[in-house]
Specification:
39% helix, 8 helices, alpha/beta
Length: 234
């Protein structure tokens, strides 16, 4: 099976090289080839320069796509989905919050044929997790509960940035959200399609705003709007 890894990147020059190298080095049973599709989402730092050197070093594995201006995670994922060639897909953030060492956990239900979609939960399992913001945790729990009410699934972490898909499933889903509304939108749409959704506990090394964390309470409000829109449309 070939694995496609989608990495949306916006001003991640400090971490993107380390992420890509870890992704390429991580062995996964059942994966015989992989491609890393990075979408430079209008970065204004040296992200593009770092990516150019990585493409030169790994011309067969690393593909770089670009937006001329920042459009958001959802828009970046849509662009990458058009180009991917793998049978399985992982969406990997460009920072170091989510560990490629968890790929075997994320992909096993898909490789074994049991799952169409796998969510990596920051709130379950025995893996080590960095302790950070209480109100972020409360907000995540609220958004997950609201999403679960709409979709009638029992996720513990809808907002996770670590999701895996069968490629044929992801390609059939029409996505509209440009920014972090991607998370509740994709959740609503895979649930509506009756996809087999699994959830596994993952490690998590959350970063602070000083480290470059970008999501804010405004993104939370927009996520609520996306969830309610999906409820009305349903």
């Amino acid at each position: 099976m070939k694995l496609s890894i989608i990495i949306p990147a916006y001003n991640e020059a400090k971490t993107i090289e380390a992420v890509i190298r870890r992704v390429l080095q991580q062995p996964v049973a059942g994966i015989v080839a992989r491609e890393v599709i990075v979408v430079d989402d209008g970065s204004t730092d040296t992200t593009a320069r770092v990516l150019s050197s990585l493409v030169a070093e790994f011309p067969r594995e690393v593909v770089v796509l670009a937006h001329t201006k920042n459009k958001g995670k959802g828009a970046a994922v849509r662009l990458a989905v058009e180009k991917l060639t793998g049978e399985a897909v992982i969406i990997q953030d460009a920072d170091l919050e989510y560990a490629p060492t968890d790929y075997p956990l994320m992909l096993e239900p898909i490789i074994s044929g049991r799952a169409d979609v796998v969510y990596g939960s920051r709130f379950s399992g025995q893996q080590a997790k960095r302790v950070l913001y209480f109100w972020h945790y409360v907000g995540n729990c609220f958004l997950t509960m609201l999403s679960n009410m709409v979709t009638n699934v029992n996720l513990t972490d809808m907002e996770t940035g670590f999701k895996a898909f069968r490629a044929d499933v992801l390609k059939k889903i029409s996505l509209r959200s440009d920014r972090f509304g991607f998370e509740p939108e994709i959740t609503a749409k895979v649930a509506r399609r009756g996809c087999r959704i699994y959830e596994v506990g993952i490690s998590y090394s959350g970063r602070t705003y000083a480290d470059g964390k970008k999501i804010t309470w405004l993104d939370g409000l927009k996520a609520i709007g996306t969830i309610l829109k999906c409820w009305i449309m349903d």
